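Weekly puzzle thread! Below is a chain. First person to post its structure in token form gets bragging rights.
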Amino acid sequence: MRAIIQRVTRATVTVGEEQISSVGRGLCILLGISAEDTQKDADYIVRKILNLRLFEDENGRAWSKSVMERDFEVLCVSQFTLQCILKGNKPDFHSAMPAELAQPFYNSILESMRSAYKPEHIKDGKFGAYMQVHIQNDGPVTIELTSPTGHTDPRQLSKQEKQQQRKEKTRSKGPSESSREKGTQRYRQDPNASSGAEGDVSSERET
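Winning reply:
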């Protein structure tokens, strides 16, 4: 699960000609749900959104208070394009959770935020609609957040798997086998190195 968290002085959502949601000072969240996300991912994202210290305290000290501690608002907007994987220059969204599954999952995330905070302070857009989102970023301050158990780019995952396989293969070889393999590699690189050294020793003995 990926979230773009922006500290705002104001944010609104418009569908067609109608403004359907707005917040004053607080956070605007763009949320992308992966096909592999679980409740653990949702719990992590909700906890971070509500507890990140992105605001100053009463004395003006920066990065001291969370949105809840300052009694500010949160506007959350579902955005499947955050799960984009580029294929050349073309975006591919197959990693995003299908809409029929994502909508109830997204609604449950909103309910978790409302349960943990003041329900009237949690606003959202319109799932699946074509929206105009107006964000007045404060700072600017923007945090990109990915849940630890969230989806990884398949290409990166493939690299990680190959690296892990190489490590396991190396560990599975005994020390002697690994040494023999290194010796063989050295011999292949310079088959005369050993015989040359022995010849020198023989020469010294004969002298």
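Puzzle host: Confirmed. Bonus trivia for everyone else. The chain has five helices and eight strands.
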